[in-house]
Amino acid sequence: MLDGKFDAGGAVPCQVDGGLKCFGHPVGASGLRMVYENYLQLLGRAGERQLPNMRLGLTHNLGGTPYSGVACISIIGRLGD
Question: Per-residue confidence at 49, pLDDT binned at 50, 70, 90?
């Protein structure tokens, strides 16, 4: 969408680290990289791309071979505050 909804300052920030291609799209480790970004955000350690008041993060990853695909969705967050 071009209205900014998914930009870092938008209502639903998405891929504020630039996405997996910015990291060479590490085959086999791409899901781990996405969870790591959420981890950094939740702990307030994401540096210049830190989002304010980060409480929940969602990742989704697809893989497999023809006729044996896998999808994984992870929602991580922090309690309290």
Answer: very high
